[in-house]
Amino acid sequence: MDANAWYADQIDRVIIDEAELAAKVKELAKEISADFADVDGVLLVGVFKGAVMFMADLARALTVPVEMEFMALSSYGNAATSSGTVRIMKDLDTDLKGKHVIVVEDIIDSGLTLSWLLKYLGSRSPESVSVVSMLRKPDAQKIDVPVRYLGFDIPNEFVVGYGLDFAERYRELPFIGVVKPEVYQK
């Protein structure tokens, strides 16, 4: 049984299908590749586990040299909402000095953690820092963050798939779908 069938009764609806995601990755990669065509490559920084699917697809679609790094941050602790205090759980292993850093986000909700991260990365002397995000929830944003490359704006609903999870499940779904409330309100 594939994941689509396994979770079928838990997904309310698909809001971005596999083909739309693939087309958007190609479009974003083309734009990034054009913007960085005259440099010696970019460093993609994936934030959290949720960005891994998007980051892998994006890296393969870029036509400029790519380095990849990951960070893990915590701003939630054991709560359901952000505390506003960010802790680095896993920092970068790469020196950022002189590099063109592109933060790869799966989704931007409040923007609080990303805002903190951009200041942190900027303090490490990169040549540039920009953000690419597959999704953004404009109605959930509490702080405006500069997103240079954006896939889709979506409603403020609980979504999973394409790396996004609930309780570590659904990441492998090839689409972005809205989870039925009864799944996460148990």
UniProtKB/TrEMBL annotation:
<keyword id="KW-0328">Glycosyltransferase</keyword>
<keyword id="KW-0479">Metal-binding</keyword>
<protein>
    <recommendedName>
        <fullName>Hypoxanthine phosphoribosyltransferase</fullName>
        <ecNumber>2.4.2.8</ecNumber>
    </recommendedName>
</protein>
<dbReference type="InterPro" id="IPR005904">
    <property type="entry name" value="Hxn_phspho_trans"/>
</dbReference>
<feature type="domain" description="Phosphoribosyltransferase">
    <location>
        <begin position="20"/>
        <end position="166"/>
    </location>
</feature>
<keyword id="KW-0808">Transferase</keyword>
<keyword id="KW-0460">Magnesium</keyword>
<dbReference type="Pfam" id="PF00156">
    <property type="entry name" value="Pribosyltran"/>
</dbReference>
<dbReference type="GO" id="GO:0005829">
    <property type="term" value="C:cytosol"/>
</dbReference>
<dbReference type="GO" id="GO:0006166">
    <property type="term" value="P:purine ribonucleoside salvage"/>
</dbReference>
<dbReference type="InterPro" id="IPR029057">
    <property type="entry name" value="PRTase-like"/>
</dbReference>
<comment type="pathway">
    <text>Purine metabolism; IMP biosynthesis via salvage pathway; IMP from hypoxanthine: step 1/1.</text>
</comment>
<comment type="similarity">
    <text>Belongs to the purine/pyrimidine phosphoribosyltransferase family.</text>
</comment>
<dbReference type="GO" id="GO:0000287">
    <property type="term" value="F:magnesium ion binding"/>
</dbReference>
<dbReference type="GO" id="GO:0046100">
    <property type="term" value="P:hypoxanthine metabolic process"/>
</dbReference>
<keyword id="KW-0660">Purine salvage</keyword>
<dbReference type="GO" id="GO:0032263">
    <property type="term" value="P:GMP salvage"/>
</dbReference>
<dbReference type="GO" id="GO:0000166">
    <property type="term" value="F:nucleotide binding"/>
</dbReference>
<dbReference type="InterPro" id="IPR000836">
    <property type="entry name" value="PRTase_dom"/>
</dbReference>
<dbReference type="GO" id="GO:0032264">
    <property type="term" value="P:IMP salvage"/>
</dbReference>
<dbReference type="InterPro" id="IPR050408">
    <property type="entry name" value="HGPRT"/>
</dbReference>
<keyword id="KW-0963">Cytoplasm</keyword>
<keyword id="KW-0547">Nucleotide-binding</keyword>
<dbReference type="GO" id="GO:0006178">
    <property type="term" value="P:guanine salvage"/>
</dbReference>
<dbReference type="GO" id="GO:0004422">
    <property type="term" value="F:hypoxanthine phosphoribosyltransferase activity"/>
</dbReference>
<comment type="pathway">
    <text>Purine metabolism; GMP biosynthesis via salvage pathway; GMP from guanine: step 1/1.</text>
</comment>
<dbReference type="GO" id="GO:0052657">
    <property type="term" value="F:guanine phosphoribosyltransferase activity"/>
</dbReference>
